[in-house]
Amino acid sequence: MVDFNNETTVSTPATNIVKVLLLQARAVLFEALEQYYTHKFNGITPNISVARARLLIAFLELQGYLKRTLPKDRAKEEQKTYSQVFEKLDSEEFEEKDMKDLVQFLNVKLDKLNITKIDTHKEYDRSSWEQDNKAHGY
Amino acid sequence: MEENKNLYSNGLPFDGHLAKNLEEQVGRVKGKKASLLIIDGLQGEGKTTLLVEIMDEVNRIYGLPPVKLDLTDHPQMAMGNKEFIRFFRQAKDENLVILGYDEAMDYNKRGSMTRLNQILNEVFSKFRGFRIIIVMALPNFCKLDDTLFDLGIPRGLLHCRDRDDNYGTFDAYSLSGMNWIRFWFDKLPKGAKNMAYGKVIPNFRGQFKDLEYSRSAKLDILSTRSKQKSLSEAEIEAEGLMGYNKLATKCARSIIWVRQAVSKLNIKSSRLINRTKYFDEYALNRLIEYANTQKAKKKGRKRLN
What we know:
- The complex is a heterodimer.
- Chain A is globular, with a radius of gyration of 19 Å.
- Chain A is about 65% helix and about 0% strand.
- The termini of chain A are far apart.
- Chain B is α/β, with parallel strands linked by helices.
- Chain B has 2 domains: about 220 residues, P-loop containing nucleotide triphosphate hydrolases (Rossmann fold, 3-Layer(aba) Sandwich), CATH 3.40.50.300; about 60 residues, Multidrug-efflux Transporter Regulator, Chain: A, Domain 2.
- Chain B contains 10 helices and 9 strands.
- Chain B has a 7-stranded mixed sheet with strand order 2-3-4-1-5-6-7, sandwiched between helices. In chain B, strands 8-9 form a two-stranded antiparallel sheet.
- At the A-B interface, helix 5 of A face helix 1 and helix 6 of B.
């Protein structure tokens, strides 16, 4: 008899595991950001380094994921964007504003990859009859 | 360079969205899939004009000349179901890529059991093998036979509306949109049925210009001629008149026999429409009587009267 309670019985796709890892990286980043802002609002000089390090790790994780999942030409384009991101994260003049911009960028990326998106309906060009017919199963 | 009043800046008489969709349909047909497009709209909204423009564009994609609109030679422009079936058969031999079916209202739900509609159903369910795009123009697509939609054959609808002196407007719907319009068409009360189009968001909207003057005039003549023909057919039907063919079927005799009998009995035709003689029921009765007399004579029996 198959034991469905045993975790080894049902395998999980590798991409799903990476998605969970990305979500975890995002969660710890938000934790660090929460601490940063709590300190700031309490009047204590906040330290941005923890959040900055976690953001860097989240981007590294995402970069690896994209390299594996995207087609080669698109992966190259993405690589250029990420080198700019890492440059910004490594710079000495890194400020709270840069942090906010990069977190926003990360959020948009994760949303586009359907990782944080709640509504997962198909995206297609509605002005094309054939794409619309295909989306509706005709 | 002088600007062509009948074309937009993209070099076409309609907008780019429609052109892109037509290219997709060409790709679909090349992949041996059926493609039927429908143009509908009330009278004078430019259905036939748009039909010709679409056919011209598809011909252009294949490197073929524009559609012929002569009264005697219009192999891509079928007016009515009889012409459509004939042209469809010829289309394969003439390597045509697109066929227009104007005045398609005769292919409707009410006549779904007629022989002609059954032939049309057969055509539509098997035409994918011919690698030909069919474009149908009629006042209201909701009246079309359900079988078409059950088989998923129509791929797009262009609903023509609000035409003015300079251009016409159309709303384009996919098959899913069409099915929703049909749903609302059935639900809405009489007199408000045309509001069904407004209940579904079109996939895109567009505009189209008129054909160049010389072609527009030719199309007018062709279209009017077809309408006159269907009017005279309706007139014949309403008055209960019969031609030689019908008389022959009713008498169960050959057409030659009917012609000879009419001449022998000196029966006068009731009407002469387009140089064709039409007879009334009195003529039919006389012919049946004559046929019975001949039968009795052959068998050697006595005449009854």
